[in-house]
Amino acid sequence: MKTIKGVKISPGIAIGPTFYFKRDQFPIPENRIKVSDVESEIARFQQAISKATVELTQVRKLVLEHLDEDHAKMIDGQLLILRDSELINLVSQYVRQENQNVVWAFFEVLSSYEKILQGTDGYQKDRAVDLRDVKRRVIFHLSVDDAYLTPNLKEPAIYVCDRISPSDLIHIKDQGALGIISQIGGMDSHVGILARAFRLPYISSIANLEEVLACPEIVLDADNEEIVLNLSDENRKIYDERARQHELLNQKLLTARLVSSSCDGVPFRVLLNIGFVQELKTIRPQSVPGIGLFRTEFLCIERNAIPNEEEQFVAYRDTLQAMKGHPVTFRTFDFGRDKLIAMMDLEVMHRDVAFEEWGGIRFCLDNPEILHTQLRAFLRASIYGQARLMLPMVTRVEDVLEVKKMLEIIKRDLKKEGIKYRDRFPLGVMIETKLALEILEPLAGMSDFFSVGTNDLALYLIGSKRDENLAKNYYHPVIFRAIHKIVQAAGRFSLPVTVCGEMASDPFALVGLIALGIRSVSVNYSVFHAISDEIRNIRILETKSLTERLLQEENAVKLYKLLRDFYKNQMCAIPRK
Amino acid sequence: MEKKEVTITNRHGLHTRPATTLVKNASGFKSDVNLIYKGIRVNAKSILGLLVLAIEPGAKVTIEANGQDEREAVEQLVALAKNKFDME
Description:
The structure holds two protein chains of two kinds.
Chain A: E1 3-5, E2 7-10, E3 13-16, E4 18-21, H1 38-66, H2 69-73, H3 76-83, H4 85-98, H5 102-119, H6 125-142, E5 158-161, H7 166-174, E6 179-182, H8 190-198, E7 202-204, H9 209-213, E8 218-221, E9 226-228, H10 233-254, E10 269-274, E11 291-295, H11 297-303, H12 309-322, E12 327-331, H13 337-344, H14 347-350, H15 360-366, H16 368-381, E13 386-391, H17 397-417, E14 427-431, H18 434-438, H19 440-445, E15 449-453, H20 454-462, H21 477-492, E16 497-500, H22 507-515, E17 520-524, H23 525-537, H24 544-552, H25 556-571
Parallel strand pairs in A: 4-5, 5-6, 6-7, 10-11, 10-17, 11-12, 12-13, 13-14, 14-15, 15-16, 16-17
Antiparallel strand pairs in A: 1-9, 2-7, 3-8, 8-9
Chain B: E1 2-7, H1 16-26, E2 32-37, E3 40-43, H2 47-53, E4 60-66, H3 70-82
Antiparallel strand pairs in B: 1-4, 2-3, 2-4
């Protein structure tokens, strides 16, 4: 049996034929248009060009504000190409004289330039990259409502590619993809999060795709991080059975019941983190008490740009409606360096490391037009369900006050325009920076809930360095004391506290959080049901005996052992229902 | 038809900024204006072709114009190239 090793991005197993999709090879429709449609076809092209220009100008402004002129200039080549009158003339000519559809015409024109580029000795990589970026961006705008970009699977197959974008993944999921194999792609990528949410098996870091594609049928065994190229009849039974089990588990998860309390009757909420509206398709609102964290910046990643008010409104409204009255917490755009680069979708930027961290609510307040658009979309959508607003990376009291001020201004505008919105909705603050820990009481006084982002909090308080004996940096006395402090401060103002972040998905750490008084967590879909099961099976009242010991522990390794042993002895000793 | 050869002396060749200056100036003439480099002819009023040619420092290019103001076009654009496109 011949196998190739890879890296697991999303668990599971799939058996089937392969389908190869090259990201830069767009399927180009080669149909001719009616003479009467020529002018509207050209107008469509001009619109796409102006949308792409607006988008790139916005990106350039962001780069200029936060980096420098040199970096902003990297985008100028593309802007010049978009403004080139010859480009528009040539495309129009193809459409008028040959009656080609505009996507086809645009491709022919750009290809002729690419040919010139390849013919020159002074072949310049930057120019090739510029052309590719322009092509992708314009085609995107030409095909927002069409299927030009969609990889078309003819039958259920394992999707093989160099790399895959979140929107590709959403398309192939709809077409019945069985799994994914890619050359590039990491565990933390947005595609990875999405694949796990969709429960699509996914292996990356496969160098030789040719070998995989040469086989009529393969086994994608993500659980064992390998691809089986030639399946013997003998082994087929074993793999078929495993694939069946995988499918059964998926079915079971789809029909899971809602968990609302621990087995000793203490109310507890396990909420869901999501980033894409499409993820809602994978869940039943009956089994999910609410969305504890909607990562709105993912909408930008999917679109490769900041979506306009209408697009955001639709996404927020659809989410609220899909959740049928369950609460949805929208976190305002939280851009870090990685997210911005992904959003810009500019290959030229990938080579550069000069981006500084500029994330959270401060970025949005520094770019008020972006925040204004988002808040307006949120307010308009808020009437369609139980909408909540959450501010990331808060470091100052003013962060909250400024957002509140902007909300009031927008409400006044909406009222004038006769547009409906919800006047009162919960506004929460994420506690995930050192500075926020210093101003817990004033923040509690001006907000309706706290959410603890444990990943960033751990990073800010103790850095990414961890005890070499421990797998996670959050098993640290400082973290548990900080969370205790947050719970206490919130308690004085009767504010609910939710924990989102990796800690909430780790059963040992979860027991510690519960001991500190946490009664609500928000986790990714991949662990949602496992954590719900944990809650269903534990006796929360028993964790009271842990609280004091937990807060007094000084040593990270001992703290880990304390939680582990408590979990194993006190929790698992109880007969599971 | 009027044409003349000129050497590109800008430090980084005919990159984005000098190319933009060339396009701006060429667009001011009524004649069709082309630039020829290594046998490839591109419209000098369009940035796309110029960028794609990736003209290196020291390269010899031909400016060619055809129309009522072809003589002025070639003269002025060659002078512009000699003057490093008003840069450096």
